[in-house]
Write a structure and sequence with these properties.
- There is one protein chain.
- Helix content is about 80%, strand content about 0%.
- It has a single domain, classed as Growth Hormone, Chain: A.
- By secondary structure, it is mainly α.
Length: about 425
């Protein structure tokens, strides 16, 4: 064998596939939100509570999901998690019938189902971070994490036109039933093709294994004790990274849950047109997530070193997002506003690779736990964002609501000045 195999990148592609299905199921309620609100006479605030119920459940199981991946490995955790996504997605599509059979109000039924669905989706990215740490050297981790998280964007830009078409031609329920089937398919592919460690995989040759192990941190392997967890929790460096990602999560969830409805209800686009416009930011984000990870890995090998090499990409993206938010909120033309806000979405998703690679580097042995803590922060911002954004819009207008979101993005960028990826 003269060349190393590249099985690790196939694992990253599978992680991307899991994220595609994850986001297909997660965000379809946003596109189906308008007909759901009309069918069950729900207000914007009530629908915001349904959105927040998912994020709350998702947030609560981030750390336990990451710890499970550290303990049992990402193969089992991600495989069984994907099967459970399918179950609760299917039940969400049947929420009306469940409400009739149980006597529970449709609002409470949707809140409970989305909360349980959120719990099941919680392990996705902490376990993915565990898999990346097991399979990739330090100098490839921003790219690998970026590729995995690109699935967020791919799922998001594939889903709106598909779900919109299904809602118009069939019913909103059909979108949930279809995405449930995708979950079963990706779970089977993951169980068949993935392994927890490179040495366990039949397709990894000796040269690839050597490449991976040579670039590994000595501390990323599982099996750490409680003392290592306590050291992680006492790290100010880690908490500053989490605080920054929390603010970044607030911004990203504005676009995940409200961009489509903003186009329909504020910019007065039709449902089908809004669905196609909603794909644009996610197409951009698929590109920027990959490029952000690639640039971050390249920059740490220059004179900038580890700290500034990891900082530059997220800071530039977040400052840029704040600027474009301010502009997009004030543009009169609806199409120009949609384009400007799409650029903002692309920028705010371009930070993912550096964040997760930095969490890998400073995590000691508890990569899943640290990834869970990081994503808990992001989704605490996400719990607040779907509810606070329409509240601010209702009382102060959408311009002020988006201005506030821009200030949050600036705060996320400034916190990077105090984060040192080179320090554990």
């Amino acid at each position: 064998m003269n060349a190393p195999s590249r099985t690790r990148w196939k694992i990253a592609c599978l992680l991307c596939g899991l994220a595609v299905v994850n986001y297909f199921q997660r965000v379809n309620i946003s596109v189906a939100g308008d007909p759901i609100m009309k069918a069950f006479r729900l207000t914007q605030t009530q629908m915001g509570n349904v959105f927040s119920a998912f994020v709350l459940g998702y947030t609560l199981f981030q750390i336990p999901g990451g710890m499970l991946a550290d303990r049992f490995g990402p193969r089992q955790v991600l495989g069984w998690a994907a099967l459970s996504w399918g179950l609760f997605t299917f039940l969400t599509g049947a929420a009306g019938k469940i409400s009739l059979l149980t006597g529970v109000s449709i609002l409470n039924a949707l809140i409970v189902l989305r909360f349980l669905f959120g719990l099941c989706e919680g392990p996705m990215f902490p376990a993915s971070a565990r898999a990346v740490a097991n399979w990739f050297p330090l100098t490839e981790r921003a790219r690998a994490n970026g590729l995995a998280i690109t699935g967020v964007s791919v799922g998001s830009f594939l889903m709106p036109p598909l779900v919109s078409w299904m809602v118009l031609k069939l019913s909103w329920e059909s979108s949930f039933f279809l995405s449930a089937a995708f979950s079963i398919l990706i779970a089977r592919a993951w169980f068949l093709c993935a392994r927890d460690l490179p040495a366990q995989h039949w397709a990894v040759n000796a040269l690839e294994l050597k490449t991976i192990q040579k670039g590994m941190s000595r501390d990323i392997h599982p099996g750490s004790g409680s003392s290592s967890l306590l050291l992680s929790l006492r790290s100010g460096n880690l908490w500053r990274l989490v605080a920054s990602y929390t603010l970044s999560g607030y911004v990203s969830y504005v676009f995940i849950f409200w961009f489509y409805l903003y186009l329909v209800q504020v910019r007065k686009f039709g449902q089908a047109e809004s669905a196609w416009l909603t794909t644009v930011p996610w197409i951009l984000a698929a590109f920027t997530t990959m490029v952000g990870g690639y640039l971050s890995d390249r920059l740490i090998m220059t004179r900038l070193g580890m700290d500034w090499g990891r900082r530059i990409v997220p800071m530039a993206c977040q400052i840029g997002a704040a600027v474009f938010l301010t502009i997009g909120a004030r543009v009169e033309n609806g199409y120009v506003a949609a384009a400007v806000l799409s650029i903002c979405t692309g920028l705010i998703l371009g930070v993912e690779g550096p964040y997760w690679a930095t969490a890998n580097q400073i995590s000691d042995k508890n990569v899943g736990f640290t990834g869970g803590l990081l994503n808990t922060g992001s989704n605490l911002g996400g719990v607040l964002s779907p509810t606070l954004t329409p509240f601010l819009a209702e009382h102060y207008g959408w311009v002020r609501a988006l201005d506030f979101t821009g200030l949050v993005a600036l705060g996320a960028a400034l916190l990077w000045l105090s984060v040192s990826p080179s320090k554990k």
